Amino acid sequence: MNHLLSMKQLGTDDILNMLRRAGELKRGSASGLPPGHTVSNLFFEPSTRTKTSFEMAERKLGLSVIPFESGFSSALKGETLYDTVKTLEAIGLDALVIRHPEDRYYEQLEGRTSVSIINGGDGSGQHPTQSLLDLYTLQEEFGGLEGLKVTIAGDVAHSRVAKSDRDALEKLGAEVRYLCPPEWRGDFEAADDWSDVLEDSDAVMLLRVQHERHGESGSFSAEAYHERYGLTEERAARMKEGTIIMHPAPVNRGVEIADSLVEDPRSRIFRQVENGMFVRMAVLETILKGRD
Ligand code: CP
Question: Is 184 within the bounds of a domain?
Answer without folding.
Answer: yes
